[in-house]
Write a structure and sequence with these properties.
Helices cover 81% and strands 0% of the residues. By secondary structure, it is an all-alpha fold. The protein has one domain: Amino acid/polyamine transporter I (Up-down Bundle). The longest helix is centred in the first third of the chain and has 38 residues.
Length: 406
Amino acid sequence: MAKPLQRLRSIGPGLLVTAAFIGPGTVTTASTAGAGFGYALLWTIVFAVAATIVLQEMSARLGLISGQGLGEAIRTTFGWPVARFASCGLIVVAIGFGNAAYQTGNVTGAAVGLEILTGIPVATWSWLVGAVAAFMLLSGAYRVLQSGLILLVISMSVAFVVTAVLIRPDPMAALSGAFIPQIPPGSLTAVVALIGTTIVPYNLFLHASSVRQHWPAEVPRDQALSESRFDTVLAIIIGGIITAAITTTAAAAFFPGGERITAADMARQLSPSLGSSAATALFSLGLLAAGLTSAVTAPLAAGYAVAGAVGWPAELKSWRVRGVSLAVLLTGTILAASLGKSPTETILVAQVANGLLLPLVAVFLLVAVNRRSVLGRYANGWLANLAGVTVVTITTALAVWKLATL
């Protein structure tokens, strides 16, 4: 009994990863996928969850054994100055661009929650959300508000799971969608977006840094790795169940003929378990909370990632880290306010952008975790490399296919 309790007490960084990807992007993308294609894209969620576990385990192992964040590891991997400069430059561009896109979706999602509650347009609320997120980031107030915001997100997530059970989905159709890969006509955008909203590139940087704080050096490394893997697998599977539940409820509520649903329509998915008024209220508040928490963590992760890649002090008090964080936040806010007339499409495109950038970050992670000079016996074995290369190959093929259709 003591060992299971010890494992449960060790949970932490994995939940941070899950909390980061259960945001407005996941709610919007999973809802759009279910509304437009029914159960057909559930396999994408299964793949994305497995791929997230593979990559996040590597990231956590890198942080625990090397004592470095992913940005620092990439910077020290290449000895040739030109290669080091090019790799760090690519990471800075990828994280900067990817997080700015992701941030656009976060701010838009929070603003949509407020629009549903008040009727005031998304463009107006985007500026207020951006200002509140900037205050929370610079003052540290997000630590005080985080628990309340996460509670709202959990409440919305539980409501989706309960609703998915209550509607009694067709088990054969759901199993077929979950384990027989298919890409129906017009669904490629949704496939790439589902992957991009689950395997969040900045989470690979965030995880490597957070595990070092959760399992300090005095904890034996084998014990830390075992607990970290349990934490990662459990938390990401929970996130996958929530994403699948959102897709399932959307399929029941809108498919067929639900290709173009609005954020207000999405709240109707929760009506079977909550009733119309309560569903709208909880969905709106959950979307607001999910957007606001992600609107703080995404720019913060970008600041840490860039600092590690270029060799700056990776501390929140550093003006450089704050500068990068605020630049990402400001860019996302401006784009959210500018594109506020089509919020659902804006959020969806933000997830696609992350899906397109993912293979680049994953390749750098694979290179870093194969350094036996740094990780010793904890470096990747053939099985881990096979899993990692498979993830990179599939995500790259989908990204290239999507780019070819643009």
